[in-house]
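Schema walk-through. Below, the input block comes first and the output block second. Nothing else is stored per chain. Lengths vary across the set, and this one has 246 residues.
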Amino acid sequence: MHGVTVSHPRTPKVPLVSGVDWDVRAGECWVVTGAQGSGKTALLETAAGLYPCLAGEVRVFGEPMGNAARAARIRRRVGMVFDGHGRLFPRMTVYENVALPVTYHDDLSLADAAAWVMPVLEALELDRMADLPAGRLGRAWARRVAIARALALRPEVLLMDNPVTGLDAVHLRWWRGFAARWLAGHPVMGGKPGTLVLASDEVRPLLSVGHWFAVVHAGTWRVLGDRAAFELSDEPLLKELLAGIE
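--- output ---
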């Protein structure tokens, strides 16, 4: 992102976060934090190419996202995991939710998508839940299904919104293990290292995962640096966020 101004899709002409200059390199893990409602989600969705920026330029894999046809092709290489229950379709099964990107983008039947879907379900320990309606899952398992859906097309970059919110100790341990495997080279990706961008209100559980940290506050964007720089920052908001998660 270079000189980017982000807006919310419901108010596309109103600036939400301005002056975003941000380069994410392959293999990095970024943690973007800030208070609720600060614009982290809109920033993440703009980075994913889901919404246009109000000003500036967004490039993904070196390609500008202004061209609709080009953006559609590039978005296949970027996975997005949404907040909460991951925007799953509750009446569809776990398998159907994860297969959806494959059936849509590659025009495959649900049966033909199995070669793509089942390895992901097995890798994320979801294969025994494949036939369950997604609406019957608790938040933690629904979040894992949302990760599986994001991985269905084998993206190179994974963007996750509030990935650890509401997770108990068991699921948090699993998520940290997944994040480490993704960055190092997840089996689903054939061992190729991935890139991870996390937006979160809860920053303490992500300190051991993130390589680089940034904060969104009062409509502004600020890159803080590595973990040491983050912990030494004099930003009052960061002290509040850290103090609130003891």
